[in-house]
Amino acid sequence: MHFDPDVPASPPLRARAWYASLYLQVLVAIAAGVLIGHFAPATGEALKPLGDAFIKLVKMVIAPVIFLTIVTGIAGMRDLGAVGRIAAKAFAYFLTFSTLALIVGLIVANVVRPGHGLNIDPATLQTGGQVAEYAAKAHESSLTGFLTAIIPDTFLSAMTEGNILQVLLISILFGIALALIGDRGQRVLDLMEDVSIVFFKLVSIVMKAAPIGAFGAMAFTIGKYGIESLSNLLLLVATFYFTSALFVIGVLGIVARLAGFSILRLIAYLKAELLLVLGTSSSESALPALIQKMENAGCPKAIVGLVVPTGYSFNLDGTNIYMTLAALFIAQACNVELTIGQQVLLLSVAMLSSKGAAGVTGAGFITLAATLSIVPSVPVAGMALILGVDRFMSECRSLTNFMGNAVATIVVSRWENALDHEQLDAALSRRPAEVAA
């Protein structure tokens, strides 16, 4: 960098106060939420609106952020062949690692056997209430339901109803249309790029409320269900967390190493977002921030725009692990011995139903109902056994899904030879990128 002695040096940047760190604020908020929920359960339950309000705030900006990111990425690239190639590579990655997550869950469930010895009589299980509601919704996760859900009634309804798949569809179509008209669409593209800057600034404003949302959501979870509710099904919960950690650190760690980066450094880079996901039990709460951080880590906007939102619907590693573990836990608890063929059938159906439930509220439990219905010997009513601890496992599902999509974005960028390795190293090392003179 050229230094001109006649130009006064810029004043040094003031270090940000330690208490201004979003990571620390969310961490303190989660700890406070746990304490309030444990020692004042009624108060903790009453704080649920804080978590709900924050998630609604984030969902308010998700659709326009995805739309603007994908459209400006595709239209700015102009090469539609490259768009198709990126999408094909992303789906190949999703299919491979989603299947691998199911297999890992299946192996661990057969080795640990968390449901063994419970000796539950299926006739004594409660089939009403929430279990019946989820089972009734299971048909929504079918392929027919998926195809119906992905096509919006109108262009604007996709933006207002908050269905990520519908937003993804109209964004890709609009981006392709804008790219096809060439230079005539440049003014529209410039306008949308300017609007996207405004929306990402809006995201940074919304994220200032993250500690409040995490506090309310965690206080409600502990106040409503109580830490002691984990005791009866502690082995299942512990097995799920262990399996998810094994998948992230082991499987995704190997993928990261082959792609030239460290999974542990990536986790550290995304620690604030991961804590937010942990506090709110929703990976969507950190979706806009993930898009921005992946771009800051050297992944091209077009690839980030395609891989991240698509991954939120099709790359559900944590949900897949949960479904195989939960299905086999219920079978083991009810003394139902499944053959290898039946387990492979469960795995295959879980692979399809997890895609069909994208955008459906309560997708994890709904897909589990759809999967269990394929093997009549496993009672769907057995979901009542895990209903009480499902909330505690949802955090781990969301964390695993989140990390899976972060790794996928970097890997697909590298496959396209479009990853800025220097910028990635700077981001993961938490060093400011060098500014060229």
Question: What is this structure's SSE topology?
Answer:
Layout: H1 22-39, H2 41-46, H3 48-77, H4 80-112, H5 129-137, H6 143-150, H7 155-161, H8 164-180, H9 186-206, H10 210-225, H11 234-258, H12 263-269, H13 271-280, H14 287-296, H15 301-314, H16 317-333, H17 340-356, H18 363-372, H19 390-415, H20 421-428
Helix pairs in contact: 1-10, 1-13, 3-8, 3-9, 3-10, 3-15, 4-11, 4-15, 4-16, 4-17, 4-19, 6-17, 8-15, 10-13, 11-16, 11-19, 13-19, 14-15, 15-19, 16-17, 16-18, 16-19, 17-18
Q: Explain this structure to me?
A:
Helix 10 crosses helix 13, helix 11 runs antiparallel to helix 16 (317-333) and helix 17 (340-356) runs antiparallel to helix 18. The chain has 437 residues and is mostly helical. The chain has helices at 22-39, 41-46, 48-77, 80-112, 129-137, 143-150, 155-161, 164-180, 186-206, 210-225, 234-258, 263-269, 271-280, 287-296, 301-314, 317-333, 340-356, 363-372, 390-415, 421-428. The chain has one domain: Proton glutamate symport protein (Orthogonal Bundle), CATH 1.10.3860.
Order of helices and strands: HHHHHHHHHHHHHHHHHHHH
User: How many beta-strand elements?
Assistant: 0
* Unreliable spans: 1-13, 138-143, 356-361, 432-437
Count the domains: 1
- Name the CATH class: Mainly Alpha
Radius of gyration: 23 Å
* CATH topology term: Proton glutamate symport protein
Could you estimate the helical fraction of the residues in percent? over 70%
CATH architecture: Orthogonal Bundle
Number of helices: 20
Report the biggest beta sheet as strand number plus sense, adding barrel if it closes: none
Structural class: mainly alpha
CATH superfamily: Sodium:dicarboxylate symporter
Terminal residue distance: 5 Å
Amount of beta strand: under 5%
The rough form would be described as: globular
Give average pLDDT, whole number. Answer: 79
